[in-house]
Amino acid sequence: MTQPSFDTIVRNTLPQLVATSPKAELHLHIEGTLEPELIFALAQRNGVTLPYADVEALRAAYAFTDLQSFLDLYYAGCNVLRTEQDFFDLAWAYFERAAADHVVRVEPFFDPQTHTDRGIGFDVFMPGFIRAAEKAKQDLGLSCDWIMCFLRHLSEEAAFETLEASLPWRGHFIGVGLDSSEKGHPPEKFARVFARAGELGLRRVAHAGEEGPPEYVKSALDVLGAERIDHGVRSAEDPALMQRLAHEQVPLTVCPLSNVRLCVFPDLAQHNLPQLLDAGLCITVNSDDPAYFGGYVNENYLQLVHAQPQLKASHFYGMLRNSLQASFAPEADIARWQEALDVHWKAAAAH
Ligand code: ADE
Ligand code: ZN
After folding, report:
1. Ligand 1 pocket check: which of 26, 29, 210 to mutate, most ligand atoms within 8 Å of Cβ?
2. pLDDT band at 10 (very low <50, low <70, confident <90, very high)
3. Strands (DSSP E) along the chain, which ranges?
4. Residues linked to residue 231 through DSSP beta bridges, in sequence order
5. Which of 298, 25, 285 has its CA nearest to residue 142?
6. CA torsion sign, 93 to 204 to 19 to 308?
């Protein structure tokens, strides 16, 4: 059945309609939701001294020039996360924000090596994450499944050790991903560990084409077996790859505010998301590390509405629908959420 175009919806009603639509968040690093206020609260609770006088001074340091300049601060911020309660508080604060943005499904990334390398084991962070997700399901009706990421600046051997250490928790995450410094760390480096994850029945995703070249997107698909590409915006440099992504409808989890903050694009008006949509790709909108990049998922959508006037209502409807479709949730849940989305938009179009 073809969907109504929804382009009769007047533009000034779009922000509210998009904000209140059911949506999935598919590219969200839980450690990237660590707000400066929580960093200070946890530092005090755990007796950690921070090299910043106050929250404002820390926030002022969030002036990034590229991915690495962000990662340096992001990993440093994680140092305040010490106890199971800390990880619970981190995740719960995010889930409350997500529910306020009408997120019905989230597949958060977590970075075990950022914690295990500090002596904080799976037995500390996993119970915190699991307890927060159970409460989110119970109290907020939020559907959540975790994705464990390997840090690509570390070795494949270290990734294998992480996979091994995760096995007692196998029932508590659905997939693996690949993040951290992209340039110089091609997907091929992790071919064997991703193959093993596939044998274990884990879903596979990978960051590619954020700062790295389109070749990394191809090898994430062909060598790692990635089912979704996280970012992928540099695919636009390779017409054959664009045709393939459109043909295979590989979902791209695009993070507009992240791309601007990390200087992938000079500003939101020059982001290539419209080009990706015009080429027929399956695009979703996500927030990446919202505590660092200036907004959670609704803020990403809303700033796009304002910065990209050529994007029509049907584009936003399509991206919301894609977010649900591209999730790893049970099909019956996806169908239910998409039905709720359609009811919401048809009501808006009727006015
Ligand atoms: N880890 C957290 N955010 C990331 C990003 N945008 N790219 C790569 N690794 C990350
Ligand atoms: Zn990311």
Report:
1. 29
2. confident
3. 23-25, 103-106, 109-110, 143-144, 147-151, 175-179, 203-208, 228-231, 251-254, 282-285
4. 208
5. 25
6. positive
